[in-house]
Design brief:
Elements (H helix, E strand, L loop, with lengths): L4 E9 L2 E6 L2 E7 L1 H11 L4 E5 L11 H10 L4 E4 L5 H9 L4 E4 L1 H5 L2 H10 L4 E9 L10 E5 L4 E6 H11 L3 E6 L11 H8 L6 E4 L5 H9 L5 E4 L1 H4 L5 H10 L9
Parallel strand pairs: 1-4, 1-12, 4-5, 5-6, 6-7, 7-10, 10-11, 11-12
Antiparallel strand pairs: 1-2, 2-3, 7-8, 8-9
Helix pairs in contact: 1-2, 8-10
């Protein structure tokens, strides 16, 4: 059995680490470079870096911040936000990232996934999916709709349909974020995670809602996730990565113990 991964998420706005609830009310809480270095030493398996306003502001990602983070860590590093072309991907990878995450731009131009996978390999292309629960309809039969531009723009696309199409196009992994659970610390959206993870053959990273160790255990078992993204629970010092991994290890979950 493959080890389950614990992946801190660094949401960055104007060069500062920030955190909100349900994609709203963000407050700045620190320096992303310092936090990346700390998480690397703490035993994180990977890091995800999101420039959360690059897409909505229609600007390029802050490449210098990416470079500074990459210089401080020695674990895999995924970068997203404002990536609209293969050349954008190339710049991020050359700055030190191992993976790039596409989200809004991929909805607008699904071929971006295929072009990125052809240029850099599927393992380097991560699909970010920001998802909100809605009333099931003919257009959204699963009851989960894709929302882009940092949670600002519903697009009338069913989450399951999009996940399966993205897999066909060549994405190597899905980072599945529940807008409804984001920042609440009340647990991951298990039904959404299970729905996607059970219907695709690529790894799924669950995101949104971690508040205690039990939540990670639930999403990695009943939610069928391959990895758990965390933010508030460790950003605010409620639990450390070592504590989370020790808890999972004691519950029989295979995790990498880096210390």
């Amino acid at each position: 059995m493959l080890s389950k991964r614990i992946i801190p998420c660094l949401d960055v706005r104007n060069g500062k680490l920030t955190k909100g609830i349900k994609f709203k009310g963000n407050v700045d809480i620190g320096d992303p470079v310092e936090m990346a270095s700390f998480y690397c030493e703490e035993g994180a398996d990977e890091l995800v870096f999101y420039d959360i306003t690059a897409s909505s502001e229609n600007r390029d990602i802050m490449i210098e911040t990416v470079r500074r983070v990459a210089e401080k860590i020695f674990i895999p590093f995924c970068v997203g936000g404002g990536i609209r072309s293969v050349e954008d991907m190339r710049r991020v990878l050359l700055a030190g990232a191992e993976k790039v995450s596409v989200n809004s731009a991929a909805i607008r131009d699904p071929g971006l996934i295929a072009r990125g996978a052809e240029a850099f390999g599927s393992q380097a292309i991560i699909l970010g999916m920001d998802v909100k629960k809605v009333t099931p309809s003919k257009k959204i039969p699963s009851g989960y709709e894709i929302v882009i531009d940092g949670g600002r723009t519903p697009v009338g696309v069913d989450a399951l349909v999009w996940a399966r199409k993205a897999e066909e196009l060549g994405t190597g992994e899905i980072c599945l974020n529940s807008i409804d659970a984001d920042g609440t610390k009340e647990g991951y959206e298990l039904n959404l995670t299970r729905l996607i993870a059970s219907r695709v053959s690529i790894p799924v990273i669950a995101s949104g809602g971690a508040g205690e160790a039990r939540h990670l255990f639930e999403v990695l078992t009943s939610g069928l996730a391959d990895a758990a993204l965390i933010a508030s629970v460790t950003h605010y010092g409620l639990l450390s990565i070592r504590e989370l991994k020790s808890y999972l290890h004691n519950k029989g979950i295979k995790v990498r113990m880096h210390w």
